[in-house]
């Protein structure tokens, strides 16, 4: 059975787009470390079982799909620094180039999410997180849980958040934190008017292999859809 879910994997990319290829000073390891390492092998298999799957190959360090267009913090939509506080460019990026990056990569991603929302029961924005909070983030240096579900207190019914958490706990055999350390980002907040959304974060800690994590997510989503009750 195909699950009526819209999956977003917004931070799995590692490609530096041509507009800034000669300007970016990050090396390959820094690009990978700033993104959601492991997100590809963990979440890509979901494409086989869900109705809609959206991702991008653009590196999070260049354009962050989970930020608002107007978010110009150093870890904002077009970054000046990675989440490890490493400069992305050796000089300030021209505003014209930043606008091109947003128009060419950020807006199409969100238009695609909107287009696929029709007929879905839930959107799930899927991420991986470092085992401890990085320097630029809500919890620098703090140990993180193995799993976190975020609904920003309003992007989907709380009963759904709790029931999906229960399905994940059953599959993974570990506790799920809700809205901590993340309450939910721009994607789930900006698209919740189209369909309910939730954010899923899996620790990159080696408590399981990426393949095992992937299978547990599959099991949990299947179980949640099969047992879903409208609030």
Query: Which structural category do the helix and sheet elements fall into?
Result: alpha/beta
CATH architecture: 3-Layer(aba) Sandwich
- Strands, count: 6
- Overall 3D shape: globular
Mean pLDDT reading: 96
Strand content: 15-25%
* Topology order in helix (H) and strand (E) letters: EHHEHEEHEHEH
- Oligomerization status of the protein chains: single chain
CATH topology tier name: Aminopeptidase
- Given as residue ranges, the uncertain stretches (5+ residues, pLDDT < 50) are none
How many domains, in number, for the residues?
Answer: 1
CATH homologous superfamily designation: Zn-dependent exopeptidases
Proportion of residues in helical segments:
25-40%
Rounded to the nearest angstrom, the radius of gyration is 17 Å
- Straight-line distance between termini: 23 Å
Sheet having the most strands: 6 strands, mixed
Question: What's this, in brief?
Answer:
This protein has 231 residues and is an alpha/beta fold.
């Amino acid at each position: 059975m195909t699950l009526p879910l819209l999956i977003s994997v917004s931070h799995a990319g590692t490609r530096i787009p041509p507009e800034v290829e000669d300007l970016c000073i990050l090396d390959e390891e820094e690009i990978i470390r700033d993104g959601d390492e492991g997100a590809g092998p963990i979440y890509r298999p979901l494409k086989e079982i869900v109705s809609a799957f959206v991702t991008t190959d653009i590196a999070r360090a260049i354009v962050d799909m989970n930020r608002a267009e107007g978010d110009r913090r150093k870890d904002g939509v077009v970054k000046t620094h990675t989440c490890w506080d490493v400069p992305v460019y050796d000089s300030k990026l021209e505003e014209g180039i930043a606008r091109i990056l947003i128009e060419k990569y950020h807006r199409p991603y969100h238009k695609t999410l909107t287009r696929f929302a029709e007929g879905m029961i839930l959107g799930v924005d899927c991420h991986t997180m470092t085992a401890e909070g990085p320097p630029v983030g809500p919890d620098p240096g703090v140990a993180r849980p193995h799993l976190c579900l975020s609904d920003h207190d309003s992007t989907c019914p709380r009963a759904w958040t709790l029931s999906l958490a229960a399905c994940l706990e059953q599959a993974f055999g570990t506790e799920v934190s809700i809205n901590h350390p993340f309450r939910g980002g721009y994607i789930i907040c900006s698209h919740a008017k189209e369909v309910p959304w939730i954010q899923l974060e899996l620790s990159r800690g080696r408590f399981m292999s990426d393949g095992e994590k992937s299978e547990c997510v599959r099991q949990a989503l299947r179980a949640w859809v099969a047992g879903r009750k409208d609030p």
